[in-house]
Amino acid sequence: MTKFKQVNCHFLMLFFVILQLSAQNKNEKGPYKIKKRTYTYQKIKSERNLKLDLYQPKKKKTNGPLLIYVHGGGFSSGKRNDKIPQYFSKEMAKNGYIVASVSYRLTMKNNGFGCNVSSNLKVDAFNEAAKDIYMAAQYLVANKRKFKIDDQKIILVGSSAGAEAILHLVYGNTSFKKDIPFAGLVSMAGALTTLKNITKQTAIPTQLFHGTKDLLVPYNIAPHHYCKKTDSGYLKLFGSKAIASKLKKTKESYFLYTIENGDHSWNTRPIFEAKKYIVDFIENVVVNGKYEQKEIIH
What we know:
By secondary structure, the protein is an alpha/beta fold.
């Protein structure tokens, strides 16, 4: 082979390699630049209107999965635009997801959420927050074309009180009719007042993070805040371990991430310290339908 032909051959090979790499880079997911907009999803008389911050990947043409993030704060504090909700929303939007960080009524703002607060008020707080989150979901689905949302891929994510709100929205005794098929749920230090509504018909892919030494929201089965039976705020709760055990029987996908000796700070720490597991669960199990029943002890 002449030198001229060899040079041409090497040039063609290099050209095809560059084309292949360019095609791969075009198909890679993110990181996307993002845009943020604030919308009112519910107008309430005599109270502040309920709003959500919507984080969207720029220049994304196809409809994508929606994450609805619900902050914590004992139903008495916390904001949709606090540092942690903003961080989580931006990080997930960079990866191509649409993220709505939502406000909800803080019904316990003047009461607190301790052992001296009536257990009936606590249950009402769970259910009213669940109702607000559902209204936010309805607003987003009603505007799915505008926001480029795939309404078959809506995932709920919550921290502490937010986790309790989304768990009760999916598995609680809600009095309102639900017609949105949520695709998955990620709970960080959440719990339920009952397990009876977790069935083969209602179960959805669920990821649960919880510390075994959480003194506010029990890891397994125990009173809320470990209140005494004589306290007005005594309320038996079923934490992540109990929820996972019930989900295991339904044969639905679930992922329990247990933090040995972990405290209630793990209601947000997974966002920073276990982000890979959250992204993998949402992408592989929820979006792509991979079946998985998994438990990890950290």
